[in-house]
Write a structure and sequence with these properties.
By secondary structure, the protein is α/β, with parallel strands linked by helices. The chain has one domain: Rossmann fold (3-Layer(aba) Sandwich). Helices cover 32% and strands 20% of the residues. The protein has 5 helices and 6 strands. Strands 1-6-5-2 form a 4-stranded parallel beta sheet, sandwiched between helices. A two-stranded antiparallel sheet has the order 3-4. Helix 5 links the parallel strand 5 and strand 6. Helix 1 crosses helix 2 and helix 2 packs parallel to helix 3. The protein is globular, with a radius of gyration of 15 Å.
């Protein structure tokens, strides 16, 4: 269970089908492998995370990308969060062993199945620790909730999610 979820901003404008500046940065960093966009996103998340009420001296963990995704911004974002919080960045807290379809391309009712098939595992000692779980985008929170449950089962005392952007379903209508 997540103790809290902090989301920096929206991926899409509420009133139309265009990405916000944050959404554009995430897309460029994630889908176009733009180093310039990644650096801007890192700066923004580093500044923003300092405004949050987070546990002291947490372990910072990245939501692991699939084994079929070489370039992915989340490990870098997690390292920036750790640096901003002045804690050591620990890689490999969570791992993922199986490639799956992208959760964003999966109907909501099947997302849990995809997340379970990914083969996530906790590979670090988290017992008694607070964990800040970093991801780039969330929609339903299926992955974050699953990983928080794994971390809690491994003994984490608290799991807080920190996410760059919230997106919406492809067929979800913009707000009027």
């Amino acid at each position: 269970m997540l103790s809290a979820l902090h989301v920096m901003g929206c991926y899409w404008h509420d009133d139309n089908e265009t990405a916000t500046s944050l959404g554009e940065l995430v897309a460029a960093a994630k889908d176009l492998n733009s180093i310039a966009a990644l650096r801007q996103l890192e700066r923004r998340i580093s500044e923003w995370v300092l405004t949050l009420d987070l546990p002291l001296a947490p372990l910072v963990a990245a939501v692991p990308p699939g084994p079929n995704r070489d370039a992915h911004p989340v490990p870098s974002l997690a390292a920036c969060v750790a640096e901003a919080l002045e804690v050591d960045a620990v890689g490999g807290v969570l791992t993922r062993s199986n490639p799956t379809s992208r959760v964003r391309d999966t109907p909501v009712e099947r997302r849990r199945d995809v997340v379970l098939a990914a083969g996530y595992a906790v590979n670090a000692v988290v017992r008694g620790r607070a964990v800040v779980l970093v991801d780039d985008v969330t929609l339903t929170g299926t992955t974050l909730v699953h990983l928080a449950d794994l971390l809690r089962q491994a003994g984490a005392r608290e799991v807080v999610g920190v996410v760059a952007a919230r997106t919406r379903l492809a067929d979800e209508e913009p707000a009027d």
